[in-house]
């Protein structure tokens, strides 16, 4: 091919890309939240992902092996086509991250401006080299396209790191929170957790790394307890909101009594003075990390609505993994779940939960939401709680019973062994509904009609 294909091709790609992002509803929604001052780094990552996916799409639609000379994307083509598009994505993502960080700083009452990460020319060069060194475009097309999305997300990771570093040097104590999303590999599961920035600040730390198609969130919120200031000379720690010395992690005692099945369980916990509604049984590292994690997910991100008490205890005291008390609106959870021994604690062949986020989705996205709609239905129809529950679940229950008539292992095959045994022993759909929510969030649904029926129950709005 003798003609220079780049100018017209780049023009078409840029045109289509601009149209894609203007029409993208998720991007529109994030920008509205940004104007309202309600965004966080999870929104920034979603924003970056949408841009990366849009760029992948327009390149895939406009470039193929047949149109390239010798079926190869030579360097002079790759460099002139890709660099302006990757740079444009960087500009858009970094600008959004700057807005996010400024919003978070303002909420945390910090008089600091957001730091914008530098454009990473080396990453762009490596993408260009990777595709231009392929003998044929099709040999590396898929992995090359995936790298465009990963690269867009990495701008968010760079922003998190830059701002955490700036705040650390300013005397704050930033916490980096890495969370898995959906189905994840073992490596991502092992990296999930809450980290002191000082311990992961070294260049190339795995906490800030992501592989192709990785949707893990890596966030920093200066309002998550990082407003605790350390005097680097005396090592004395104070709180910005109310300067005080000798603050204790543990506060007033609070006993809890609960009933699990026929078992009566009681234990003593202590108020965690860092948070308004969190109690813990021990002062272990696992307990502290779990408290920080739950405060972020439940209190700050407000994913599941209000929880009265969040209680972090040892597994042998709880005699289980986690529990939602729908009478008192309390969450009980064992501290060991945040360690690297999750798979040893939770039998993933019995439960669908693969990580700590799944456990929260089960207890709060499933059980809590389920009981909330039952009470809403009860009040709207002035009937008993039991009748409200039966009425709400009627279509779902009939479907499950019908499927079991055809296949006695239906629930186990399509949901979990946990859900099957609970239904067999008690005829309750509670565990099935909660486990279906986990599968939905994992994008692991095998029976879409069952999923729709579960969502009909939980989406009841009067």
What does this structure look like?
The chain is α+β, with helices and mostly antiparallel strands and 462 residues long. Helices cover 54% and strands 12% of the residues. The protein contains 17 helices and 11 strands. A 6-stranded mixed sheet has the order 6-7-8-9-11-10. A 3-stranded antiparallel sheet has the order 2-1-3, sandwiched between helices. Helix 3 (41-62) packs antiparallel against helix 4, helix 5 (121-132) packs antiparallel against helix 6 and helix 16 crosses helix 17. It is globular.
Please write out the topology.
Elements: H1 6-23, H2 25-35, H3 41-62, H4 75-107, H5 121-132, H6 137-169, E1 175-179, H7 186-191, E2 193-196, H8 197-200, E3 217-219, E4 228-230, E5 237-239, E6 250-260, E7 263-272, E8 278-280, H9 285-300, E9 309-313, H10 315-318, E10 322-325, E11 330-334, H11 342-345, H12 356-381, H13 385-406, H14 410-414, H15 417-426, H16 430-441, H17 448-458
Parallel strand pairs: 8-9, 9-11
Antiparallel strand pairs: 1-2, 1-3, 4-5, 6-7, 7-8, 10-11
């Amino acid at each position: 091919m003798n003609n220079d294909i780049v100018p017209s091709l780049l023009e078409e790609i840029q045109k289509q890309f601009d149209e894609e992002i203007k029409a993208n509803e998720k991007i529109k929604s994030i920008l509205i939240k940004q104007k309202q001052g309600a965004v966080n780094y999870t929104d920034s990552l979603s924003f970056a992902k949408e841009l990366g996916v849009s760029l992948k799409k327009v390149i895939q639609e406009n470039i193929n092996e047949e149109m390239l000379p010798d079926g190869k994307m030579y360097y002079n083509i790759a460099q002139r086509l890709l660099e302006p598009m990757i740079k444009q994505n960087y500009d858009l993502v970094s600008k959004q991250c700057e807005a996010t960080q400024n919003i978070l700083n303002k909420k945390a009452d910090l008089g600091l401006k957001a730091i914008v990460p530098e454009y990473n020319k080396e990453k762009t060069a490596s993408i260009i080299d990777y595709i231009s060194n392929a003998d044929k475009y099709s040999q590396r097309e898929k992995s090359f396209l995936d790298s465009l999305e990963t690269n867009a997300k990495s701008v968010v990771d760079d922003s998190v790191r830059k701002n955490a570093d700036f705040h650390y040097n300013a005397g704050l104590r930033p916490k980096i929170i890495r969370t898995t999303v959906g189905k994840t590999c073992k490596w991502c599961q092992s990296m999930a957790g809450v980290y002191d920035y000082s311990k992961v600040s070294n260049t190339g730390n795995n906490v800030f790394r992501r592989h192709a198609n990785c949707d893990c969130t890596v966030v920093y919120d200066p309002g998550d307890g990082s407003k605790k200031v350390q005097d680097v000379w005396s090592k004395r720690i104070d709180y910005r909101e109310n300067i005080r010395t000798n603050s204790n992690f543990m506060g007033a005692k609070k006993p809890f009594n609960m009933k699990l099945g026929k078992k009566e369980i009681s234990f003593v916990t202590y108020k965690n003075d860092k948070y308004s509604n969190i109690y813990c049984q021990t002062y272990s590292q696992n307990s502290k990390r779990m408290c920080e994690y739950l405060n972020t997910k439940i209190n700050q991100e407000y994913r599941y609505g209000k929880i009265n008490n969040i209680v972090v205890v040892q597994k042998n005291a709880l005699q289980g993994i986690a529990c939602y008390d729908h009478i008192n609106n309390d969450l009980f959870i064992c501290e060991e779940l945040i360690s690297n021994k999750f798979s040893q604690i939770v039998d993933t062949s019995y439960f669908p939960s693969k990580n700590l986020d799944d456990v929260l989705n089960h207890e709060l996205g499933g059980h809590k939401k389920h009981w909330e709609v039952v009470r809403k239905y009860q009040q709207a129809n002035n009937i008993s709680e039991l009748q409200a529950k039966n009425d709400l679940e009627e279509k779902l229950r009939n479907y499950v019973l019908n499927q079991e008539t055809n296949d006695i292992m239906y629930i186990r095959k399509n949901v979990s062994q946990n859900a099957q045994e609970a239904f067999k022993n008690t005829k309750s759909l509670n565990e099935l509904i909660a486990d279906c929510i986990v599968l939905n969030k994992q994008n692991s649904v095998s029976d879409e009609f069952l999923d729709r029926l579960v969502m009909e129950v939980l989406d009841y709005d009067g």
